[in-house]
Amino acid sequence: MSIDDKAPAVRVTDLTVAYRHRPVLWDIDLDVPAGKLMAIMGPNGAGKTTLIKAILGLVPAAAGRVEIHGKSYVENRHLVGYVPQRGSVDWDFPTTVLDVVMMGRYGALGWIKRPGKREREQAVVALEKVGMADFQGRQISQLSGGQQQRVFLARALVQDAQVYFMDEPFQGVDARTELAIVDLLKELREQGRTVVVVHHDLQTVQDYFDWIMLLNVRRIASGSVSEKFTEDNLRLAYGGRVDFLQRKAPADPGPDETGDMRGYGRIRP
Questions:
Q1: Of the candidates 149, 184, 214, 164, which has an alpha carbon nearest to the alpha carbon of residue 35?
Q2: DSSP state of 192
Q3: What are the φ and ψ backbone dihedral angles of 124, each rounded to 5 degrees?
């Protein structure tokens, strides 16, 4: 697979999206280096999901350009995997876990050629990685929310992508599943893959991610977590609503000189 190692894994330039003449994203510039695990964070209505969908061409952009590893998204879309919000999927559709995961190979096979033995083996390996191999014959409607999320992650894994976009992969999952997902994302990063995640939990940012984008229609800040995950940037992103930035308990220390925000709790805008 030939990719431009010098170009960012994701480059967004002057991206604007509007609904009924109202800007949802305005003049967004973003570079994500290869091999980063990045969180997109911001309040409700900030445009986080819209940003991912605009990058993937799922919603129309009024202006702007998107590049994946140095080429347009259209040229390099085969390098991209996508995990949508679980709530946006029709889980009553009559299909099995294994079939859902094998759908991740359709991009490589084309829609005419049917998956074969090799694709089935790849799907089983992916299900093993997410702890769902024993459920491969189960109807997806019979799964819990956390199990459904694991199945979608397995489907993304079989795409063997270089860049993954995941929209709220931790939503509605239990603590064990969340940790399993984090381990998987870090494994992808260790392989040199790039993972971009819509995320809400301030308390886990420094443990889970090394790159961050704070968004509120416009880009507030983007870069390494150590440099950009600061109280000032959070206040800019969340409109100075300090009630969302309260520490979880009086005994928790505040940010030190390094900008450590571990004392801050969960934002559910």
A1: 164
A2: T
A3: -65, -40
Tokens of 176: 């064990």
Determine contact, residues 205/226, Cβ cutoff 8 Å. no
Angstrom distance (rounded) from CA 153 to CA 218:
29
Q: What is the pLDDT along the chain (269 residues), one digit of tens a residue?
A: 456 668 899 999 999 999 888 899 999 999 999 999 999 999 988 999 999 999 999 999 999 999 999 999 999 998 999 988 876 666 677 788 998 888 887 555 455 556 667 778 888 998 998 888 999 889 888 888 888 888 888 988 888 899 999 999 988 788 888 888 899 999 999 999 999 999 999 889 999 999 999 999 999 999 999 999 998 999 999 886 544 444 443 334 444 433 444 444 444 43
- 210-228 per-residue burial string, b: 16 or more CB within 10 A, e: under 16: bbbbbbbbbbbbbbebeeb
The token duo for 88 is 């946006």
Torsional class of 192: left (φ above 0), alpha (ψ -120 to 50), beta (otherwise): left
Contact between residue 167 and residue 23 where contact means Cβ atoms under 8 Å apart: no
